[in-house]
Amino acid sequence: MNLKLNELKTFETERLVLTPTTTADAEFILALFNTPKWIEFIGDRNLQNVQDAEEYISNKITPQIQKVGFGNYTVTRKFDRAKIGSCGLYDREGVEGIDIGFAFLPQYEKKGYGFESANKLKELAFSEFNLTEINGITSEKNIGSQKLLMKLGLQFQKNIKLTDDTEEVLLYKLAF
Fold it and tell me: How many distinct structural domains can be found in the chain?
């Protein structure tokens, strides 16, 4: 596929805009990836400064978006243009198929933004990106993520270990 970043679509919900993450989002990504919940439940990506975040975006996020046409989206509130979180469909190593994921800055949690953005991506997975199923993985300790995956219609399948991880994670699945 090899799309250019300017060829990628932006999507909207009632309150949110989902834009493919680019290096212009580096400051936001640095802040999000260093929140306590991100580090506890997703893992420390060792981003120490904006340059680290730009490199992470260029090396980890952009290639998947260009290759398959979807990936990580920066979630922005319409009314004030605040970058509040990220949501995406990921071709993640150690997970067969495409994985839906989400994370928000602490001050924007518990306001329905996670469900609103992830539900939009779930719909797009089947209608726009022609996927037949999506997965979700989460830590056994991340009850909020488990609840959101179930609210999206994904059902628990089994515990799995991701490549190079020692801790098992819960695998959820939804087939279209």
Answer: 1
d(CA 155, CA 132): 15
Amino acid type, 68: V
Interatomic CA distance for residues 66 and 77, integer angstroms = 25
Q: In which domain, by residue range, is 144 found?
A: 5-175
Residues of the chain with pLDDT under 70: 1-7, 165
Buried b (16+ CB within 10 A) or exposed e, 71-89: bbbbbbbeeeeebbbbbbb
Which sign does the torsion angle of CA 108, 59, 127, 137 carry? Answer: negative
The CATH number covering residue 170 comes to 3.40.630.30
Q: How far from each other are the two terminal CA atoms of the chain, in whole angstroms?
A: 23
Task: Give the pLDDT score at 7.
Answer: 67
β-strand pairing of 72-77 with 99-104: unpaired
pTM: 0.93
- Which tens digits make up the pLDDT trace of 80-93? 999 999 999 999 87
